[in-house]
């Protein structure tokens, strides 16, 4: 352990997330941060996808 830090950023807006939910084949590589881990957005359940969209929209306001 070298005592380093790791930073992960989500660089997406809510429009992209909504489009990914509606057209998942266009976003097969879209990764998002979910409560301590990362996952492919299209592999998440609809409830979790909506939570991420809501959180993103809140941060855009």
DSSP strand tally = 2
Overall average residue pLDDT: 88
Order of helices and strands: HEEH
Strand content: 5-15%
The termini sit apart by: 39 Å
Radius of gyration: 13 Å
What are the segments in which pLDDT stays under 50 over at least 5 consecutive residues? none
Outline type: globular
Give helix % range.
Answer: 25-40%
Number of helices: 2
Number of domains: 1
Can you list the strand order of the major beta sheet? 1-2
Based on secondary structure, the structural category is alpha+beta
**Biggest sheet record:** 2 strands, antiparallel
Q: What keywords describe this structure?
A:
alpha+beta, 2 strands, 39% helix, 61 residues, two-stranded antiparallel sheet
Structure in a nutshell:
The protein has helices spanning 14-22, 46-60, and strands spanning 31-34, 37-40. The protein is an alpha+beta fold and 61 residues long.
Description:
The protein has 61 residues and is an alpha+beta fold. The protein is 39% helix and 13% strand. The protein has one domain. The chain has 2 helices and 2 strands; from the N terminus they run αββα. The chain has a two-stranded antiparallel sheet with strand order 1-2. Helix 1 packs antiparallel against helix 2.
Secondary-structure map:
Elements: H1 14-22, E1 31-34, E2 37-40, H2 46-60
Antiparallel strand pairs: 1-2
Helix pairs in contact: 1-2
């Amino acid at each position: 352990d070298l005592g380093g830090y790791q930073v992960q950023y989500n660089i997406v807006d809510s429009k992209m997330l909504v489009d990914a939910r509606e057209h998942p084949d266009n976003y097969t590589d879209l990764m998002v941060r979910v409560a301590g881990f990362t996952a492919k957005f299209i592999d998440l359940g609809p409830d979790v996808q909506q939570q991420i969209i809501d959180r993103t929209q809140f941060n855009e306001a």
